[in-house]
TrEMBL record:
GO terms for cellular component: cell envelope. InterPro entries: Asp_de-COase-like_dom_sf, MoPterin_dinucl-bd_dom, Mopterin_OxRdtase, Mopterin_OxRdtase_4Fe-4S_dom. Residues 911-939 are annotated as: Disordered. Belongs to the prokaryotic molybdopterin-containing oxidoreductase family. Keywords: 4Fe-4S, Iron, Iron-sulfur, Metal-binding, Oxidoreductase. The keyword RNA-binding does not apply. This is Molybdopterin oxidoreductase family protein. It comes from Sulfitobacter aestuariivivens. Gene3D superfamilies: 2.40.40.20, 3.30.200.210, 3.40.50.740, Dimethylsulfoxide Reductase, domain 2.
Amino acid sequence: MPKDQPVIDLSPKVSDEVRKTTCYMCACRCGINVHLKGGKVAYIEGNRDHPVNQGVLCAKGSAGIMQHNAPSRLKAPLKRVGPRGSGEFEEISWEEAYDIAESWLRPIREDNPEKLAFFTGRDQSQSFTSFWAQGFGTPNYAAHGGFCSVNMAAAGIYTMGGAFWEFGQPDWDHTKLFMLFGVAEDHDSNPIKMGIGKIKGRGARVIGVNPIRSGYNAVADDWVGITPGTDGLFILAMIHCLMKAGKIDLHYLAQYTDAPVLLNSDPKSPEYGLYMRDENGKQLVIDRTTGKLTAFDQPGVKPDLSGTHRAKGITHRPVFHQMADMYLSDDYAPEAVADRCGIPANRIRAIAAELARVAFDEAFELDHAWTDFRGEKHDTMIGRPVSFHAMRGISAHANGFQTCRALHTLQILLGTVEVPGGFRFKPPYPKPATAHPKPHIGMTPGGPLNGPHLGFVHGPEDLALKEDGTPARIDKAFTWDNPMSAHGLMHMVISNAHAGDPYKIDTLFMYMANMSWNSSMNTGGVMEMLTDKDENGDYVIPHIIYSDAYSSEMVAYSDLILPDTTYLERHDCISLLDRPICEADAAADAIRWPVVEPDRNVKGFQSALCDLGARLGLPGFVNDDGSQKYADYADYIVNHERRPGIGPLAGWRMGETGLQDGRGAPNEGQLDQYIKNGGFFVSHIPDGANYYKPWNKAYQGWAVEMGIYDSPQPYLFTMYVEPMRKFQLAAEGHGDRQPPDHLRERIKATMSPLPIWYETDQQGNDGFTVNALTQRPMAMYHSWGSQNAWLRQLHGRNPLYVPTKLMRENGLSDGDWARVSSPHGEITVPVMEMAALNDNTVWTWNAIGKRKGAWALDEDAPEATKGFLLNHLIHELLPPKGDGLRWANSDPITGQAAWFDLKVRLEKVAAPKESRPEYPPIKSPVGKGPENLTWKVGK
């Protein structure tokens, strides 16, 4: 080497300290190592020891540095001083902010708690925020699930006790055929990427079903560019093929599902279609060995799929008979559905045949002995190496609940749930719907609500109705309009409150829910509702309290701002009581903790709720002497007990002889133990207990030890959801609680106890024939990413992607602009051609477009001038039907927002200066970011 060659340090010191915590840049909750220099964040990498990501980290996770240092961070509590929407605020102290909040909240709590509507976005602390709302006494609480994925979650729990994503995962170690439906790249991204890499390395096949071929579908071996909203029809056609060919797991169906359970088959009976039960309420089957009627769970019973029973003049037939009657019908033959699905009949048959071939011809056994809930011992575990995964793409339709149920039923018929190679539940699931609470609405002025807000109804008697039959909740959840709305209807809160339907509210309290922009349908209308005044000159919604870490669009439409921290500055709890980080083979939870301290006058929202709860004297937030019970959220995490021995965290609890897991008394050093262990806790399921969880005695016993159950809870998968039949019976005129007449036919038509498919075409779509969708890119998540200096370089603007066919029909080329209109409104946006796309579907990335003035962005930022939202084209209400009623743009069963039922038309137009609609800039309390963002830690 020449003497004058410079010496370069090829391994510079990255940091002088590493602190391990949990990422917050999407819902994966990966483990991260946060490198610090001089007490500031210098670098973020994946934690190789973490069970979720094993060191893998995506662009979002690495870019958390910029999220933490974003110029748009709020700096102090704010009080509005100008008109709503002006963005004019003055900074105030936390004491004054609490005084204002208390002055609004205390009177309504003491007089009429329903006047508070408390709704939160993706906060991942729902067990805590719901506890606060329950203590306040309002029935009006829910989180973001109603406009995200309630169809998937509720359908899974009602059908089999859990669903995809946080509820379960494919058996990546054994699956040979993996099929995805409607999965975008932002949710569960690292585990999915790792899993696909693992199975493709073994030569397994991946089938992607999605109108758009991007992300996971781009690496699939086979892409099915289905017509949006027809997934359920496609799935039921495959069920038709499998049943007709006899390619279903009859033993699995008989032993572990309700297929052999007897149903009342007399159309004249008021119990027509209900299970036959014994005096203890247990479902009855015919024992194949004895031929006698018996409860499903009796030792040694072998349920008969074909046996019938006649009693008191009524014949009772097994669920399986009804399934055969329904799905063997030619209505579900591939030839009958192909045109609507956009999939040739022979291709539907080929995919069904491939599912059957892998499930049965490539079946295998694991040498794991286990004992089932009937006491039968098994020497091995049968593996069926077919697995599925699905998300919002099939969920966000008005037929999404039944579509999700159809997919779960397909898995069950193949015998691929909770077996080696198939879909596996993550603790604390499986939990059937009957193990969850029912919704509660019992209010007492000055006191708490009489139970949890959200839950699972099992018939009309569980609906959230007042004595006069009107909705008890502002969002109309758990009513005849949306009977099984397990997550509430957050997208309807502002619209209903503004209309005073079912009643007026006083205070809207929201956390991290950008309802004046990308989290709302009918964006322009919502902004008008938030600023509308009554005949007295007062705001129709009198008070709005909002908490966020950033100067989002919603900030300008609020009266009081409680500034949150960034995720690196606060405590969080990813709990088994809520949405933990479990794997199929282990229970796991995690924390976030302040790896750096805030440099602004901000406070974690959960800690602010501890303070407000104490000031208001809420039960659970004050001691017997009235003093504050929890100093902050960290104090709550450690010392709160939901029931004796069960707290937010399962690791390192106190037992009689020392530390123990699962159950135990609070441990003052618990958070320190989590920090020492990398921010997480794991307890592995014993070998032999990790499959067949709903029926495996060993798993049930372990779950009781961990505090997941208080007693063993084996159950049958319910392909036939009896509560839905109870609602149909009510619509047919049976029972004391009756639906309004205008909903009878809809209830009868949509609430089939066996999965069905129905059209989602909405009133007023004449002339609007093109499907329009959004999905999120892997590098973005909700609206937070667009103020991140690194991520903006990946997605600073978004075109409308148009298939080749529609580009040619409309004379469009890349870079042209198009007017896109719907029955509700129109936008003008740039277009780009995409060949790998359903030929009657357009789409764009969601949440890229920003309003001028928000997020500390320049007014000429590409997000505000070229970026756009499809939200302007969607309404929270369906077009009027001429009956004077307000019909929500939601699934009629769960109330999930039907984002993906949007239909539009295209028209080429001259290029405007900016995308439309154009809204005037809003003033931001944090101003604009620097012209050139320079940021470096250390030397």
